[in-house]
């Protein structure tokens, strides 16, 4: 057993926050944190702002901070949720800070629905997420540029400066790094800017010594690389940091990094307010109408924007707001009686998330001996605190040839020979289908390459794993309900509608088995307890997987993709909405394809790049 030592530098305020005494302390302390302006009442809003940002989440607050930092421009953020104490969120009070949303029934999952978890508070999903900090491989961003067309700057080289700006890297304790073989390469991968206050660190809390047992076994699986830093463009087996400020051991997120303690009169936020229409003068976006979250929703308020309206409402609500504003598939808008401003069929299409496969569970016959004796460098919270037990830290990110050396080519060949029209709704627009087909060509190529990760196996200290798919071939939709346009949109993951997604998941499950049967584990006589060693045929595996597959991996993207209009894209290379002027989208919805990792760091980087693009337009 290793013990949780109490970190020495913990201040009394931090301890109080952990114990939930924040409100008592705040009342008795003379220090009042300076903030940008929280406008409590619509009557106190200015008539117009240079920029209005819809959504005070991960991307929204990042862009707001950058646009207000030199004092030249006024910015209003309109946020649907309220301020929320993220330390409560850590303790599991997450429901209050997230939307209560489920998908439409999924026919390939026996008509089950799937939850749709997204943040609903100042900070958005960054306030409630699992805090893993990951990045795709270089090739996964190069694909964005390939889909964007000649001259695109959204490739790896064009993203790297913004990854460095997005998070401030704090190196791990040397003893912790040595014990666990954590390596990192600041020069190639990370930034440490003073004005970047979202932190990435390896606090080491709850890192089980048994991680190393599994690390040692994975590092000798055929084809598995161990890069110096998994954030430098290639993947394999590596430790990834978490968004925790290691000095205070608290969640580091868009609110703490891009709102708290900013003393700026030109940066305002109004909460509890739902934007429900972008206003236009011809094709120029010049304002936003919003309604109160609670209370009399017939009373809309309008505010004007003189330079740009920026949408950062996230992958589910950005397409909803565009559709409510007359920008979307014409047939859908007509059914909902919304006048068509721009017929843009891509709005709400190309929806993707990382599917979570079923847990392939094992039990050790003989528990492996602890590979580490020292507890040097461990810090963080002990049991009983409100910080969640973190199984975060170590993961394998593997290309398909490594996952399935015998079968990757057959999967790629099956996928590339499909007529995709057979696997999407008949109503899918031609432009959208053209974009899907280009993605198909690219993915079939990448299924045979070692430059893109398909399987993510997160490694805790226990045997077995739950495979996570990093790239899906099915494409879902987010559309307003034509009968109730103002209600929550209809979210359809279209789970397993392309059968190749099942082939991929079967390959992932087989990899987990091959790994558990690998030589380093031989002394420990692991037994498969779930689904059980008798479930072996493709058909048996498929029916087991179908019962426990969840298409919701917390990383929804793609509903306002950055692609050309003729490929079903919604925003251009400058993130401006096709067919409009002075209207941009800056959140996770602009990613045209998933990346091989969790999405927050990429969202922060998109937002940093967006802020630079927006400033350059002035
Ligand atoms: C439970 C969970 C766990 C996750 N775990 C991880 C993880 O461990 N690592 C990782 O990297 N990523 C993780 N993610 C994903 C990551 O957090 C998201 O990809 C990212 O935060 C999305 O940022 P965004 O700016 O696109 O949207 P959000 O941060 O969700 O912001 C959208 C904001 O817009 C507001 N809004 C919506 N509609 C309106 C409207 N009409 N008017 C006004 N405001 C509106 C919302 O209230 C919200 O605050 C997780 C996400 C969730 C939900
Ligand atoms: C969430 O939605 C369900 C179904 O619409 C409803 O029964 C439930 O009360 C809602 N929960 C909350 C917390 O709003
Ligand atoms: C799923 O729902 C559809 C539409 O209501 C129905 O036709 C189909 O039979 C259902 N499938 C299952 C497995 O229940
Ligand atoms: C905030 O800004 C105002 C105006 O510039 C200044 O008077 C005040 O001292 C600042 N407060 C802090 C805490 O920096
Ligand atoms: C809501 O606002 C409308 C328009 O101002 C008003 O006519 C109506 O009485 C209000 N309803 C409630 C319940 O306050
Ligand atoms: C841990 O300590 C034991 C007893 O001192 C020793 O036999 C063993 O080799 C040590 N293991 C490691 C990994 O250092
Ligand atoms: C391995 O475990 C199985 C199942 O628990 C058991 O039947 C078998 O005897 C064990 N073998 C060894 C060598 O311990």
From TrEMBL:
Cofactor(s), by name: FAD
GO molecular function: flavin adenine dinucleotide binding; oxidoreductase activity, acting on CH-OH group of donors
Keywords per UniProt: FAD, Flavoprotein, Oxidoreductase, Signal
Top-rank taxon: Eukaryota
Domain Glucose-methanol-choline oxidoreductase N-terminal residue range list: 314-328
Signal peptide: 1-28
One GO BP annotation of this record: secondary metabolite biosynthetic process
Entry's family note: Belongs to the GMC oxidoreductase family.
Name assigned to this protein: Glucose-methanol-choline oxidoreductase N-terminal domain-containing protein
């Amino acid at each position: 057993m290793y013990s949780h030592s109490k970190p020495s530098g913990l201040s009394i305020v931090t301890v109080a926050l952990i114990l939930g005494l924040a409100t008592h302390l705040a009342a008795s302390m003379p220090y009042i944190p300076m903030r940008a302006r929280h406008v409590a009442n619509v009557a106190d809003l200015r008539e117009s702002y240079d920029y209005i940002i819809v959504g005070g989440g991960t991307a929204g607050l990042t862009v707001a901070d950058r646009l207000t930092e030199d004092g030249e421009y006024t910015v209003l953020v309109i946020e649907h949720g309220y301020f929320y104490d993220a330390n409560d969120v850590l303790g599991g009070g997450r429901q209050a800070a997230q939307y209560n949303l489920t998908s439409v029934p999924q026919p390939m999952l026996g008509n089950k629905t799937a939850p749709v978890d997204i943040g609903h508070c100042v900070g958005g999903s960054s306030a409630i997420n699992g805090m893993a900090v990951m990045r795709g491989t270089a090739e996964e961003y190069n694909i964005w540029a390939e889909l964007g067309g000649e001259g695109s700057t959204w490739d790896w080289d064009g993203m790297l400066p913004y990854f460095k700006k997005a998070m401030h890297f704090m190196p791990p304790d040397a003893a912790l790094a040595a014990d666990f073989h954590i390596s990192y390469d600041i020069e190639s991968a990370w930034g440490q800017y003073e004005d970047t206050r979202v932190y990435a660190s390896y606090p080491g809390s709850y890192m089980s010594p048994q991680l190393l047992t599994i690390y040692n076994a994975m590092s000798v699986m055929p084809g598995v690389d161990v890069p110096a830093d998994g954030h430098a463009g290639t993947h394999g087996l590596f430790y990834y940091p978490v968004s925790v400020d290691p000095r205070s051991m608290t969640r580091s997120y868009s609110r703490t990094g891009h709102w708290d303690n900013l003393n700026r009169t030109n940066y305002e936020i109004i909460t509890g307010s739902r934007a429900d229409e972008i206003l236009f003068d011809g094709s120029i976006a010049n304002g936003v109408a919003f309604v109160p979250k609670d209370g009399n929703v017939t009373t809309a308020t309008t505010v004007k924007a003189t330079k740009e309206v920026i949408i950062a409402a996230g992958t589910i609500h950005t397409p909803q707001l565009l559709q409510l504003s007359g920008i979307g598939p014409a047939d859908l808008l007509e059914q909902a009686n919304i006048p068509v401003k721009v017929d843009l069929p891509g709005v709400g299409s190309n929806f993707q998330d990382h599917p979570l496969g079923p847990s392939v569970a094992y039990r050790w016959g003989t528990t492996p001996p602890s590979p580490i004796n020292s507890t040097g460098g461990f810090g963080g919270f002990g049991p009983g605190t409100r910080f969640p037990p973190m199984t975060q830290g170590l993961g394998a990110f593997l290309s398909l040839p490594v996952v399935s050396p015998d079968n990757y080519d057959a999967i790629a060949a099956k996928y590339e020979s499909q007529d995709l029209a057979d696997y999407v709704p008949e109503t899918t627009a031609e432009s959208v289908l053209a974009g899907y087909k280009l993605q198909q060509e690219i993915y079939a190529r990448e299924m045979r390459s070692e430059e893109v990760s398909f399987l993510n196996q997160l490694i805790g200290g226990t045997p077995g794993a739950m495979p996570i798919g990093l790239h899906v071939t099915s494409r879902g939709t987010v559309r307003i309900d034509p009968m109730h346009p103002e209600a929550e949109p209809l979210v359809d993951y279209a789970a397993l509608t392309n059968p190749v997604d099942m082939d991929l998941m079967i390959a992932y499950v087989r990899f987990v088995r091959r790994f558990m049967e690998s030589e380093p584990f031989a002394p420990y006589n692991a037994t498969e307890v779930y689904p059980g060693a008798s479930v072996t045929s493709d058909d048996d595996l498929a029916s087991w997987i179908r019962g426990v597959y969840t298409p919701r991996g917390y990383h929804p993207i793609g509903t306002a993709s950055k692609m050309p209009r003729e490929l079903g894209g919604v925003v251009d290379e400058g993130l401006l909405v096709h067919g409009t002027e002075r209207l941009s989208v800056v959140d996770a919805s602009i990613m045209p394809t998933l990346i091989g990792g969790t999405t927050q760091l990429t969202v922060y980087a998109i937002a940093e790049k967006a802020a630079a693009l927006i400033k350059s337009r002035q």
